[in-house]
Write a structure and sequence with these properties.
Blueprint (H helix, E strand, L loop, with lengths): L11 H61 L1 H10 L8 E6 L2 E10 L6 H13 L5 H13 L10 H14 L4 H11 L4 E12 L5 E4 L23
Antiparallel strand pairs: 1-2, 2-3, 3-4
Helix pairs in contact: 3-6, 5-6
């Protein structure tokens, strides 16, 4: 059991010694924190350049391999286009041999031309003249939500399709429908990136994805990072 000492029971010299001790302990704690922060800075200065060089080399290897794989299939894809044709909107091609499959293609993100703004303005003007009853307010909120732009400043093509459904069902041959039509006519998808995916069936016939991004690759089993995970305490 810890004994409680009252400052009034101490002599002036003892109180002075206690204050000095507290200041020394505070200074020692500050010095340790400063030393720890300096050690963190030194470790970062040592680890970041080495790791960055490794990542740059890995990126360069992936870039080189990506080009080689697309080149390997260039003749096959051209022959496929000449023999059986390729749909204008076909974004990927899967080539299989035995238990191995490679999927090549490109991804697009939504994009709309400048004139889409006229369609949006037409819809807004139409909604302003609808009224202010509860069902109309609910509809306006829905439409405004569907017209919200994403982080890149573009409309969501799936939400535009929902707008088309509302227009066709509830407001055909109105400025609402015309506005949606203008937006859809201005749809100009943008090329996002060329991609490669690889799959292989194991001994049980289950198709396994071959991880090709550094995020997808599993960590070596001897690396334990569980100390970074949240605990239940």
């Amino acid at each position: 059991m810890t004994e409680t000492i009252s400052l009034q029971d101490l002599t002036p010299e003892q109180r002075k010694e206690l204050v000095t001790q507290a200041k020394q302990e505070e200074k020692a704690a500050k010095d340790k924190r400063s030393a720890d922060l300096k050690a963190l800075e030194d470790l970062a200065s040592e680890s970041v350049p080495i790791s960055m060089q490794k990542l740059i080399e890995a990126s360069q290897i992936l870039e080189q391999v990506k080009g080689e794989v697309f080149n390997n299939f260039m003749g096959l894809l051209k022959l496929k286009a000449d023999t059986i044709g390729i749909k204008s909107n076909q974004q990927s091609h899967t080539i299989t041999s035995g238990t191995q499959s490679i999927k090549l293609g490109y991804r697009v993100t939504d994009g709309y031309g400048d004139n889409a703004a006229y369609g949006i303005a037409m819809i807004h003007k139409f909604l302003e003249n609808l009224g202010s009853d509860a069902p109309t307010k609910k509809l306006i909120n829905v439409v405004f939500r569907l017209l919200q732009r994403n982080g890149n400043g573009d409309l969501d093509s799936k939400k535009v399709i929902q707008l088309r459904q509302i227009a066709d069902r509830d407001y055909p041959e109105t400025d609402f429908a015309k506005g949606v039509e203008i937006i859809q006519q201005e749809y100009k998808p943008k090329l996002s990136r060329w991609f490669i995916e690889a799959y292989e069936k194991d001994g049980t016939g289950i198709e396994r994805n071959i991880p090709l991004s550094i995020t997808s690759v599993d960590l070596p089993k001897d690396i334990d990072l569980t100390f970074l995970l949240p605990t239940n305490d």
